Structure formats: C-alpha cells, structure tokens
Amino acid sequence: MPYSSYFVNGDLIFAVHPYKQIKLMADICLPDAPRQSWNNAEEERKNSNPTTFCELLGLEELFSLEVWRASVAELVGTAVLVFALDTIVISSFESKTSSPNLVMSILIAIIVAILLIAANPISGGHINPVITLSAALVGIISLSRAAIYILAQCAGAILGALALKAVVNSTIEDTFSLGGCTLTVIAPGPNGPIVVGIGMAQGLWLEILCTFVFLWASIWMAFDHRQAQALGRVIVLSIVGIVVGLLVFISTTVTAAKGYAGAGMNPARCLGAALVRGGHLWYGHWVFWVGPTIACVAFYLYTKIIPRQHYHAEGYKHDFFNVVKSLFT
To answer: What residue spans define the domains of the chain?
Structure first.
C-alpha cells in the first residue's frame, strides 16, 4: 500500500507514505536527543548515497564558497611549488656539481613533502592535477570540486612562473627555460645550433610510467584511509615527496639526454612555465597532459580490478563508474 493512515486518539490525522510515517512518528514520540540523531542519520544517508547525475557530479560544489576558499590553498601551494621546484632545477645545474640530478631530486623530495603537509588540512593537499584527477575518478572528491582545484592549480602555476621570471636574469631564463618541462632544447653545436633531447613517444611513455608509479607507490597510501591512519599524515605525505624525488632522478638518469627536463608528473607546473616563457616549451607540451591522464585512468582501473577489501578508500560516493552508470539508468 503506497500510503497509510495515522491515528491519534482514534482520529485520522495523517495519510502519508510509510517511510514518512515512520519519521513523523519519530518526531512525535522521540525525545529531542534521539530525534536529533534521527535527523543526523537521515542527512548522512542523503549525503553518502547520491542518486541523481547532478549529485554524482557534485554540481552544488560549483557554488560552494567553502570549496572555492579551499581552492585558494591549491592556488598558493602550486604557486610556491612551481617557484621552488623551478628554482631548484636551475640552481642544481647552475651550481656545476658533479651529480646535479641527485641534488635536484633530494631537494624536490623535501619541498614537495613540506608543501603537501602545509596544504593538506585545508584542501586535502593536492597541488597537482594528477592527484586531483585520480581522487575524482576514485570518487573521493566530486568532478566539480576537481575542476575547481585544477583551475586553481593552473592559475597558481602561472603565478609561480611569473614570480620566478621576475627574479632571475634573462641569461638564466633563456638557458634553463624557467625550469619548465622540456623534451628538447636547442644547444650550440660544432656546426651551428642543434636540437638535443628525447622524442615525443619516449617522453609520453616516461610520463605514463612515472605518473602511474607515483600514484601506485605513494598516493595509494593517502587514498586508503586504513594506511593513512596507521602511518600518519606526515609520514604518508613525506613518502609522496620521496617517491616524486626518486622518479625525477630515475627519469633524468635513465635517458641521459641533455635537454630533457625529466618526467613532469604535474601538468599545471608544465603549463605555467610554457605560458610565461613560451617558445620551445610548447614543443610536445601535450605529452605532459596526455601521459599523466592515461596514468590516472590506468590507476583507477587498477583500483576497480583488485578485491575491494584490500582497498579502503575514504568515500566512493562520486566514483566515476557510478557517474557513467547514472547516464544509462
């Protein structure tokens, strides 16, 4: 029966759906504290089980002041990251040390860990479209929040590159391309300028492989609340920084190619320097976006294949599979 009558002292006063009838009875019969618990449980039920396409996309977050305010941490964090990383790249090679790649990787690991720890309590500490996109695909955040974060990260990367351009001289800017992401550079040769670096196919594979390892070996721990709670926030984010530093060292060492700046693993960082410096930084720039995107999708598919009991993520309500599924139901 879709609707039922509700009697008080023998008088018919309600004709409501059974679910609403139960809630009305709770409102009337329960004291204030249990009634509040009922309301909290009802609110949690609505929030944890989005049913419509708009809810799955989290479209309401596009108009949430809290989300936009949180994105400021992503903007500032990415700006500082770009300024610091690109400065590290320039100074490591400018110092003429015997192992600039090693020095650069260690410093990158330290600065990434520090900035992630600083931004984590406010926005979740992404400061990288790779982390944001993978979090959205897994369902930890909505696609709407991811779009806001990525927009803020790109804006922050541009500001960081502009800040670096303002403090370095033109010679260093030309020599090191503002520390941006490069596949090749034009270098002086015995018979005139020559192009040195790696090909686009090689660069694409390095982006895919390094980004997937980055997600699998470190971001996995941050997404799995069981591991995150056991290890602690500082340790997990420090591991993320260490993995980034190792992958930068590996990617620059395994190719042994001058002109290749190493795996970007952060499209926003690559975009900032390319927009501010321009020129050859646009050559193969798509590699630094397509490669990480493919890696994020591969990581998401991996999380769907393995047994669920071995992957305890914080949330899932915005899982990309559920978003696609809602289009056909």
So the answer is: 4-48, 65-326
Residue 16, SS3? strand
* C-alpha to C-alpha distance for 251 and 207, rounded to whole angstroms: 9
For helices 287-305 and 129-138, the axis angle rounded to 10 degrees is 30
SS (H, E, C) 294-319: HHHHHHHHHHHHCCHHHCCECCCCCC
Q: Could you read off the pLDDT of 171-220 as tens digits, one per residue?
A: 877 777 888 888 888 766 677 677 788 889 999 999 999 999 999 999 88
| 65-326: CATH topology | Glycerol uptake facilitator protein (1.20.1080)
pTM: 0.80
How far is CA 292 from each of CA 18, 39, 96, rounded to the nearest angstrom? 50, 43, 31
Which candidate, 267, 270, 213, places its Cα nearest to that of 242?
Answer: 213
